[in-house]
C-alpha cells in the first residue's frame, strides 16, 4: 500500500543521517520512527548549529540531542580528564536516565560515558576521567567539585547540552551553570532543551547560544490531550482510606506527598495494608534511590510515593495514574508532577485529593495551569471512584488516622525541650564522598541523618526525636522538610 502524504513527511532515522549501527540498536529497542522534535532537531545538530529545543516532558528530547551527539563523536578518543561532550542535567535521577538511554548506543560507536553526581563515589569518577571519557553526564554541583580539584578540564568540550534548563533555573543552579559554560571551549556547539523559556532560561540562551535554530513542538503550555484530570473532594476522615484504595489499583502509579516525612509515613502504611509501595525523596541515599527506581521500572513495586524531587527526574514508561495526595504548591509543580504519566502519546490520569479547605486554592491552581479538572465528591468504595481511578480495597488491615497530617510549610525546626531551651538536637551527617560539598541536586536537608549521636557528647537516638514541638507534633529532626527541589549545598 502506498504511503500517505503524512507518512511521507516523516523521515526515518537513517534518512536523518544516523549511522546504521545506531539505527539497528534503536530497532532492537522497538524505536523505528523519530518523534517530531527528533525529526526537527537532528539535522541541525548534525550540521553543528546551536539548537534551542522546546517541548513538553516526554516528547523525546533525549534522543533528539543524543543521537546526533553520538554520531558526531563516533570514533573519537578523549584525552585524560578532558571529555569531548557534556550533558548537564538538574537531578541525579535524570543524569542516570540519560546515561541509561545513551550509553548502550554510544558503546557501539566506541564512546565512553561517565555520570558524575552527588552521593556517589567521587574517587571512581576521578579515576574514570583520568582514564578518559568522551561523554560526561553531570549535575552542576558535583561537576564544579571535580573542576575545582583539577580532575576535570572542560576546555576540549565540543558539544554542550543543557537538558531541562528550566528545571535547573527553578532549582537555583544558574550560577553553577554559568560558571561551567564559561569554562567550556569557546565556539563549541551549544544545545539547550527546555519546556519553558522564562527570563532565567532566556538569559542563558542570549549569553551562550550563537544564532540558535529554535524547534518548538506544539505549545509547551498546552494540556496533553491524552491526559485526564480530576479533583477528588474528600472528607478528612476518609482521605487515608481513599488513598489506600487508589494506591491498590492495577497499573503503575505515582503518589506525590509534600514532605519527606509524609512520603515515608505513607509508603510504610501502604505496605502494611498489602500495597507494593516504596518511597523516594532527597533524604535517601543515592544507592537506595537508584534501587527503588529500578524496582519500580521492573514492576517489583507498583506504587512509588515521592516528593517533588521525583517530578523533576523520573522517566518511567507505563505510569497510568499520578495522584497528588497533597496538592502541589503551584501550577508549575502540578504540571511537572502530572508529566510523569501520558508520556509519548500514551493515556494517563491525574487526580488530586482535595480537602474542604483546599478547594478554592486548588481549583485556582488548575485554572492557572490551563487544566480542566472537574470536581468530583468521592467516598470510599463508591462507583465513581472506581470508574475514575480503578480503586479497589486493599487486602490488608485498613489504615486508621490521617496518612499525611496537615502541617505548616515550615515544620520541625528547633523543638522546645523541657523548659523551652533553644539547644539544638543531636545530628550526624552522611558525608557521602568526604567533606560537605555541593551535591548538584535536592534540598539542603538531603545530607542530614538525624539517627546518630550528638557530636557534643549526648547519647545516641534513633527515629524521630522525643522532644515535642508544640505546634507541629513530634520533632522529626529537620528544620525544613519540604525542600527536595532546592540545590543541596553539601554531599
Automatic annotation (TrEMBL):
One GO term describing the cellular component: cytosol
Coiled-coil ranges per UniProt: none
Keyword Coiled coil: no
Keywords, comma-separated and alphabetical: ATP-binding, Helicase, Hydrolase, Nucleotide-binding
Domain Helicase C-terminal: 241-384
Motif window: Q motif: 11-39
Record's compositionally biased regions (Basic and acidic residues): 427-457, 478-491
Annotated DEAD-box RNA helicase Q domain residues: 11-39
Protein family (similarity comment): Belongs to the DEAD box helicase family.
Name recorded for this polypeptide: DEAD/DEAH box helicase
Source species taxonomy: Bacteria, Bacillati, Actinomycetota, Actinomycetes, Streptosporangiales
Amino acid at each position: 500500500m502506498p504511503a500517505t502524504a503524512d507518512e511521507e513527511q516523516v523521515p526515518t532515522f537513517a534518512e536523518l543521517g544516523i549511522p546504521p549501527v545506531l539505527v539497528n540498536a534503536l530497532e532492537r529497542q522497538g524505536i523505528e520512527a523519530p518523534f517530531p522534535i527528533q525529526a526537527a532537531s537532528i539535522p541541525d545538530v548534525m550540521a553543528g548549529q546551536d539548537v534551542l529545543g522546546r517541548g513538553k516532558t516526554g516528547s523525546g528530547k533525549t534522543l533528539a540531542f543524543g543521537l546526533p551527539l553520538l554520531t558526531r563523536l563516533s570514533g573519537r578518543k578523549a584525552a585524560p580528564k578532558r571529555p569531548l561532550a557534556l550533558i548537564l542535567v538538574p537531578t541525579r535521577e535524570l543524569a542516570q536516565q540519560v546515561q541509561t538511554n545513551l550509553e548502550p548506543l554510544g558503546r557501539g560507536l566506541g564512546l565512553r560515558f561517565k555520570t558524575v553526581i552527588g552521593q556517589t563515589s567521587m574517587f571512581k569518577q576521578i579515576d574514570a576521567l583520568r582514564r578518559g571519557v568522551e561523554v560526561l553526564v553531570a549535575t552542576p554541583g558535583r561537576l564544579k567539585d571535580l573542576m575545582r580539584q583539577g580532575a576535570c578540564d572542560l576546555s576540549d568540550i565540543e558539544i554542550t547540552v543543557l537538558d531541562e534548563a528550566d528545571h535547573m533555573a527553578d532549582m537555583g543552579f544558574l550560577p553553577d551553570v554559568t560558571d561551567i559554560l564559561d569554562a567550556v571551549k569557546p565556539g563549541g556547539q551549544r544545545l539547550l532543551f527546555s519546556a519553558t523559556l522564562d527570563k532565567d532560561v532566556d538569559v542563558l540562551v542570549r549569553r551562550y547560544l550563537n544564532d540558535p535554530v529554535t524547534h518548538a513542538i506544539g505549545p509547551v503550555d498546552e494540556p496533553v490531550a491524552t491526559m485526564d484530570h480530576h479533583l477528588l473532594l474528600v472528607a478528612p476522615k476518609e482521605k487515608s482510606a481513599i488513598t489506600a484504595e487508589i494506591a491498590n489499583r492495577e497499573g503503575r502509579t505515582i503518589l506525590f506527598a509534600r514532605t519527606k516525612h509524609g512520603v515515608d509515613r505513607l509508603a510504610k502504611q501502604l505496605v502494611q495494608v498489602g500495597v507494593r509501595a516504596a518511597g523516594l525523596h532527597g533524604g535517601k541515599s543515592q544507592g537506595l534511590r537508584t534501587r527503588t527506581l529500578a524496582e519500580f521500572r521492573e514492576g517489583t513495586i507498583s506504587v512509588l510515593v515521592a516528593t517533588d524531587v521525583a517530578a523533576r527526574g523520573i522517566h518511567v514508561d507505563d505510569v497510568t495514574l499520578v495522584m497528588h495526595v497533597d496538592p502541589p504548591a503551584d501550577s508549575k509543580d502540578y504540571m511537572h508532577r502530572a508529566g510523569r504519566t501520558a508520556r509519548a502519546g500514551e493515556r494517563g490520569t491525574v487526580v488530586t485529593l482535595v480537602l474542604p479547605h483546599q478547594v478554592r486554592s486548588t481549583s485556582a491552581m488548575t485554572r492557572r495551569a490551563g487544566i480542566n479538572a472537574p470536581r468530583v465528591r468521592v467516598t470510599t468504595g463508591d462507583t465513581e471512584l472506581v470508574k475514575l481511578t480503578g480503586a479497589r480495597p486493599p487486602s490488608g488491615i485498613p489504615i486508621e488516622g490521617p496518612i499525611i497530617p496537615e502541617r505548616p510549610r515550615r515544620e520541625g525546626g528547633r523543638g522546645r525541650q523541657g523548659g523551652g531551651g533553644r539547644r539544638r538536637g543531636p545530628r550526624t551527617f552522611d558525608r557521602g564522598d568526604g567533606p560537605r560539598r555541593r551535591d548538584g541536586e535536592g534540598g539542603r536537608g538531603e545530607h542530614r541523618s538525624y539517627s546518630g549521636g550528638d557530636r557534643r557528647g549526648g547519647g545516641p537516638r534513633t527515629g524521630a526525636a522525643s522532644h515535642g514541638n508544640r505546634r507541629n507534633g513530634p520533632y522529626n529532626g529537620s528544620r525544613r522538610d519540604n525542600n527536595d527541589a532546592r540545590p543541596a549545598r553539601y554531599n
